[in-house]
Structures are given as C-alpha cells and as structure tokens.
Specification:
By secondary structure, the protein is mainly α. Helix content is 82%, strand content 0%. It has one domain: Growth Hormone, Chain: A.
C-alpha cells in the first residue's frame, strides 16, 4: 500500500491536479502534431526520406533550441511560470495552425523546418516550465511519485494523440492536405491547456519574487545561466545523473533513428505486425506501455534500491535487451524490445528528474532543467548525425546494436563507480 499512499498524497493537492491536467492536454496536442510532422516528412508519398534527411530534420528541429534553451531556463526563474504556461500554449496553438497551412501548401526546405522548430521549441519550453513548477504543488516526499505519474502519463497521452492522428489519417488519406488537417487539430488541446494553466494564481508556480524582479538584460541572462551551470557543477550527484542519462540518450537516439529507417525502408507488413507509419505507431504504443510500467515500478525502486543503483541496473538491462532482442531484427521481438527499452528510458528519466528536483535549489531549477533538456536534444542530434554518417539507409546494422549495448554497460559501471567514489569522499570528510 505505500505506493498507493504516495499517489493519493500527490493527487490530494488541487494545484498538482491542475498542473497535471495542463500537461496531459498539452502533450496530447504534441502527439497529434508530431504524428502529422512525421507523416508529412517521412511517410508522405509526395516526399522522399533518406538517413541524411532524417538527420537534417533532427538537427534543424532540435539543435537551435538546444543552444537557446538554457537561456530560456533563466527566464523560467524570472517570469511567473503560470504566465509562461498560459501564454506559451496560446502561441503554439496559433503556430500549429500556421504550420498546417504550410503542410497543405506543400512548403518544403528551410521555411518548413523553421515553422516546425518554433513549435518544438515552445513545447520543450513548456515541459521545462512544468518540471520546474512541480515542486511548488507537491511535497518533496512525493516528488518521485508525482514525476512518475505526470511524465509517464504525459508520454502515454502523447502516444494516444499520435495514435489518434494515425487513425484519422487512415480515414482521410496520406496527402499533404490530409496531414495539414491533422496538424491543425492539435490547436484544440493546446488552447485547453492554456485555459487550465490560467486557473492558477499568478505566483502559485514560482519563481520567488526576489528572483523574478532581477533585470532581464542579455548580460543578466548570461550571468544567470553561468550561475546555474556552476550550481550544477557543485551539485555532483545531479551532474553524474545527467551524464549517465546523456550517455543513455545517445544510444537511445541511434536506436530511434534506426527504427524510423527500418520501418520506412527495410521492413514489410507481416500480418498483425506492420511496416511504415502504422508499424511505427505500434512501436510507439509498446514504448508507451513500457513507460506506464515504469511509472508503477520506479517510485518504489527509487526509494528502496537508490537513485544510483536503480538507473545503473536499468542500463545493464537495456544492454541485455539490445543483444537478446533488438539484434534479431524480427518485428514481433522488436516490439518486445521497444516495450522493455521504453520501461528503461522512462524509469531513468523519472529517477533523474526527481534527483534534480530534490537537490537543485528553487532559484536554479528552471536553468538546470533547461540544461537537462538541451542535453536531451543535443544527444539526439548527435545520434542522428552518427546514424546518417556511418549506418546504411535502411537502418539495418547489427554492429550498431552491439556497440549500443556495450555503451549502456560501460555507462552503468562508470556511474556506479563514480557515484561510489563521491559517496566515499563525502563520508570520509
């Protein structure tokens, strides 16, 4: 019953319930938008997609915000986060309608990716704001449970949004105009998320009033960012946790890009198991199911096994999944692998999110979460570039699977060792 008691305690706060609802609505819209983007770029018969195109798309969409995101994190420690969640959702509702118009018109190249970049950047900024605001609406003792519930539910709802978009696409068709209709539909949940966030009092989600009044010049933003980086360096457990999840994301990113290419260029339909966008939707569903299991298991494991040993054990498990299942390149086994890797990825994220929220002071939390978000984006871009440079166009590379498995194992052992050294040094002092 302890897990249920923690869950009830987290849900008992109306502030958390409202923040949770804003997250779910926004991430459902994200799922719809992402499915329309993936369909329009990768699975639209009017367009062609190669490994280099996938890598370029990841770079254009993610890298600019990776460079600007930490500066945005300083703003999360200056601006009322309630205002951020309200108005940013309104802006992205307008932006997604404009993006839909570009899809319908067949716009390609830099203008198309620039519009998608705006939407992705706003979404990442909102997710950072949600994470920074969470400790203001739940007690510290319930953070791991609140993280497990909110981030995993968000992933599940995003998957549901993507699945709904794919279902609509099956009815409408797969032309550019059909994908435009799907993209425009994402504006509805975005507007609802903004309306829910508007129900908070202005200062309910922080930051502290003294921090908010700091002058927002470019120099002040840069100094704030550097202060956040120094605080991160001094908070060694968080720094080690981010390093471990960064290494995991690199391998996970290569797997992600290879999976997209496999389902587009390598696999063919096999009864229930599908190729193309429908098959990729099955993979997303398996990942989401694994994430749901992670939400149930991780809070208790985090408390009993520990914030270092639990992620390390997960990384070792991921290495085994890569070698035992992913290496087969068989559709049914790849879905099982997706389920297990989804469990690992979400469990690690819940653990590191909680570590950041517990150990980083409120005045730096927005900056650290934005640095964390930038780490996610940069590692995915690097993974995409590596995939495009050295792997085949169809994504079929047994050697890559083996290298990723070894990387997970080395990361697990290094994390355990470095954290143990740090703990021993602290004890002796």
């Amino acid at each position: 019953m302890p897990r249920r008691r923690h869950l009830v305690a987290a849900l008992s706060d109306p502030g958390f319930r409202r923040l949770y609802a804003a997250r779910l609505l926004g991430q459902f819209g994200d799922g719809v938008f992402q499915a329309s983007l993936a369909g329009a770029v990768l699975f639209n018969p009017e367009r062609q997609a190669r490994a280099a195109d996938v890598a370029a798309g990841f770079a254009v969409l993610l890298l600019p915000y990776s460079l600007l995101g930490p500066f945005a994190g300083v703003l999360l420690d200056r601006w009322w986060r309630q205002r951020v969640l309200t108005f940013a959702n309104l802006v992205r509702a307008v932006a997604v309608v404009a993006f839909a118009g570009e899809v319908a018109a067949g716009v390609a190249g830099l203008p198309f990716y620039a519009s998608a970049l705006v939407l992705v950047s706003i979404s990442r900024f909102i997710l950072s704001a949600l994470s920074a605001a969470l400790p203001r609406v739940v007690p510290a003792a319930e953070l791991v449970t609140a993280n497990a519930l909110s981030t995993t539910s968000g992933t599940l709802v995003a998957a549901a949004g993507g699945a709904a978009a794919v279902g609509v696409r099956l009815v409408l068709g797969d032309s550019s105009r059909d994908y435009a209709v799907i993209a425009a539909a994402a504006a509805v949940p975005f507007l609802l998320a903004g309306a829910v966030a508007a129900g908070f009092a202005r200062g309910a989600l922080g930051p502290l009033d003294s921090e908010r009044r700091t002058r927002e010049t470019v120099g002040a933003v840069l100094r704030g960012l550097l202060a956040g980086a120094r605080h991160l360096r001094e908070t060694r457990p968080v720094l080690l946790g981010l390093s471990a999840i960064g290494a995991h994301r690199l391998g996970y990113g290569v797997t992600t890009v290879c999976t997209v290419l496999l389902y587009r260029n390598y696999f063919s339909d096999d009864g229930f198991f599908r190729a193309g966008l429908a098959g990729l939707t099955q993979v997303v569903a398996a990942l989401a199911a694994g994430g749901a299991l992670a939400a149930m298991v991780t809070p208790a494991a985090f408390r009993s096994i520990g914030p270092v040993r639990w992620p390390a054990a997960l990384l070792l498990a991921a290495a085994g999944v890569q070698l035992g299942l992913a290496l087969t390149f068989v559709l049914p086994l790849l879905l099982v692998a997706a389920f297990l890797l989804g469990f690992v990825a979400q469990s690690i994220k819940i653990s590191v999110d909680t570590l950041v929220q517990q150990q980083v002071e409120d005045e730096f939390r927005g900056r650290v979460f934005s640095l964390y978000d930038a780490l996610f984006n940069v590692t995915l871009v690097v993974a995409a570039l590596l995939t495009a440079s050295v792997l085949p166009e169809d994504g079929h590379s047994p050697m890559a699977v083996v290298v990723i498995a070894l990387g997970y194992a080395v990361t697990a052992l290094a994390y355990l060792r470095l954290a143990r050294v740090r703990s021993s040094a602290r004890t002796s002092s």
